[in-house]
Amino acid sequence: xxxxNSELRVSRVYGFGGETSVPGDKSISxxxxxxxxxxxxxxxxxxxxxxxxxxxxxxxxxxxxxxIDILDETELGPVxxxxxxxxxxxxxxxxxxxxxxxxxxxxxxxGILAGQDFTSRLTGDASxxxxxxxxxxxxxxxxxxxxxxxxxxxxxPLLIRGGSLHGTTYELPVASAQVKSAILxxxxxxxxxxxxIQPVETRxxxxxxxxxxxxxxxxxxxxxxxxxxxxxxxxxxxxxxxxSSAAFWLAAAAASPEARLKIHNVGLNPTRSGILDVLVxxxxxxxxxxxxxxxxxxxxxxxxxGRGLSGIEISGGLVANIIDELPIIAVTAALADxxxxxxxxxxxxxxxxxxxxxxxxxxxxxxxxxxxxxxxMRICGGGSITWCCY
Length: 390
Ligand code: S3P
Known about the structure:
Layout: E1 17-21, H1 26-38, E2 40-46, H2 52-63, E3 67-74, E4 77-86, E5 97-98, H3 103-114, E6 119-123, H4 134-142, E7 146-151, E8 155-161, E9 169-171, H5 177-189, E10 193-197, H6 205-212, E11 217-220, E12 223-227, E13 237-238, H7 243-254, E14 260-267, H8 274-281, E15 285-292, E16 299-305, E17 313-314, H9 318-321, H10 326-335, E18 339-342, H11 355-365, E19 369-373, E20 376-380
Parallel strand pairs: 1-14, 2-13, 5-6, 9-10, 17-18
Antiparallel strand pairs: 2-4, 3-4, 6-8, 7-8, 10-12, 11-12, 14-16, 15-16, 18-20, 19-20
The protein binds shikimate-3-phosphate (S3P).
């Protein structure tokens, strides 16, 4: 790969392999700072992902009066933190809280702020300011918070006047771990019990991490309950490698005959590891070995050996598990023999970009036969992917 800031040239490689590791998990990094901030005592977090989204969460918690020491950093930013928890007593921010491009920051933080006896204002960049926030506003106002969406159609900026929450039972209309987490976090500050019912299982990092911080939640099928007033106790942990980052390497190796790649210390949480099942379903040779259960999360090494792949049909409950991996799955499908159909994935249209339109546009530009649906796409594999220039 070469180029300048405005130009990126990518050259084809013929076979690759070796051993690598990936940066810390984004979802877990966000949650780690938020929960550590609410805990009593100091928590050390290693393997934190210094991406812009996670740094937005870090900055947000600092603006809520949380002291965070940077213990170690790379050129990208902090990777090891000591968070001095405030024991549920976060402070009134002096100005707006900027969530940048991060939906996870805005939605999860809305849950925490809904429980605070002060008014705060959450802002975001142009893309975040167009994303749907009614999905958190509705349940949180149902618990007693007052939230005004200043943007069109229930979008950010969000003005949140929190406090005096009561528990609720809320059935999620969309499968969203962000919304589930926002409600559970608000539930921590609510009187009585809060129950969230999911249409399908979504990533359960919040539940696992609450358990680590000694907060009890109860899961009964797709319903998760939390009793308000519980106190979080600090703890130290290591964020596992992000399986969503590993997915790009896994897909490239799986589709490259003769490649052999091992990725170390990847999060293998079953609510996130659907990408492995999809690639195996396409014919990939993949094995994973869980080596530890660090920080309440299963962690291990993944080995993939490249060979010819075939198309697959993806729909239903699996979609939430692989929502962030569907774009790279679509690219892999273009390299596989046969047709791949992805359905029930309309949520892809309301991410940072419309991921269905973006994938279709880019694969089409590379000569791939792809059809867009409202809730997915059909990709005809077996053709060649040709170079293109934008
Ligand atoms: C996330 C949940 C998913 C995912 C996002 C991170 C989380 O979003 O796409 O990248 O950390 O809870 P939704 O909850 O909107 O599905």
